[in-house]
Amino acid sequence: MSRADGVQETGAPLQTGVPVHVGVIMDGNGRWATSRNLPRVEGHRRGVEALRRCVRAAREIGIRYLTIYSFSSENWSRPVSEISELMGLLRRFLRHDLADLHAANVKVRIIGERAGLSRDLCLMLDEAEALTRDNTGLTLVVAFNYGSRQEIAEAAARLAAEVAAGTLRPEEITADLLGSRLSTAGIPDPDLIIRTSGEQRLSNFLLWQAAYAELVFLPIYWPEFDHAALLGAIQEYARRDRRFGGLAARTGS
Ligand code: FPP
After folding, report:
1. Does residue 28 line the site of ligand 1, with CB under 6 A?
2. Tens digit of pLDDT for each residue in 56-88?
3. Is the CB of 27 under 6 A from ligand 1?
4. Domain housing 196
């Protein structure tokens, strides 16, 4: 079932080859700007426009979960001015786009450390999650101040605390149980991870969850990302033979 504007809604059968969950490493804002003799911040501003295009395209294509890497735990090592610009962009994104996201039935979920973020930003993040909690369309997972190793370490610490409290036995710890203590609990693992800018690495993004994700690296900078780029990555994904450690599905051999 499609809406009048052509955007798929929940319950619509997914087209074959469309990933349920797509993760995006939005890379290359700085290089995009520098290559045009613009300040790096201009690259981040254009990056927000690309993010809007990406969310819309994800809805149109029928993706159910979109996780975007917007600020990593390691980004604190950047100049203070750039950090404050990125914080400001998230604030503005929430202030200007939240109503539209809500109207489009998008459910917003935030993952990452809240410690280190200002109180007003934390309140905005809480408000975005609370407002859209019952929405049933695309789930937009914003990874902000996120680092996968830290997330896994925290999940391990939670399990250790349960063992220490006597509510869990060590032999009961499984991969699924650890996964249920991650910030992505309840969200299916990503099928496809896209990174722009030509860099080919995960950079501490969804390391646990990406165990069987297909990785697609696009040779464009993030501010250039659009519907066609997302579609191209999905077409590449659809050509892949996902075996999850088993045998080839197509040949059975
Ligand atoms: C990588 O480009 C991008 C980031 C570190 C931040 C991504 C942020 C946005 C797309 C805009 C902000 C959006 C929200 C919702 C906060 P880079 O600076 O590492 O580029 P470079 O590798 O070319 O220097």
Report:
1. yes
2. 999 999 999 999 999 999 999 999 999 999 999
3. yes
4. 21-147+191-239
- How far, in Å, from the CA of 70 to the mean position of ligand 1? 6
Share of the chain above pLDDT 90, in %: 88
Count the domains in the chain: 1
Q: Is residue 202 part of a domain?
A: yes
Rounded to the nearest integer, the mean pLDDT of the chain is: 92
Alpha carbons 102 and 231: distance in angstroms, whole number: 24
Q: Which ligand 1 atom is the nearest neighbour of the CA of 31?
A: 23
For the annotated catalytic residues, the residue numbers are 27, 75
- The verdict on residue 6 lying in a domain is no
Q: How far apart are the CA of 45 and the centre of ligand 1, in A?
A: 9
Residue showing tokens 């690495």: 201
In a domain, residue 169? The reply is: no
| Cα dihedral 90, 92, 97, 101 in deg (nearest 10) | 30
Local structure of 118: helix, strand or coil: coil
Q: Which two tokens stand for residue 129?
A: 């999650």
Measured by CA distance, the residue closest to atom 8 of ligand 1 is: 70
Helix (H, G, I), strand (E, B) or coil at 111: strand
31: domain CATH number is: 3.40.1180.10
pTM: 0.91
Cα distance between residue 146 and residue 163, in whole Å:
26
Q: CB–CB of 193/210 below 8 Å?
A: yes
Minimal-distance CA residue to ligand 1 atom 18 = 30
Q: Is the CB of 75 under 6 A from ligand 1?
A: yes
Tell me whether residue 81 is in a domain: yes
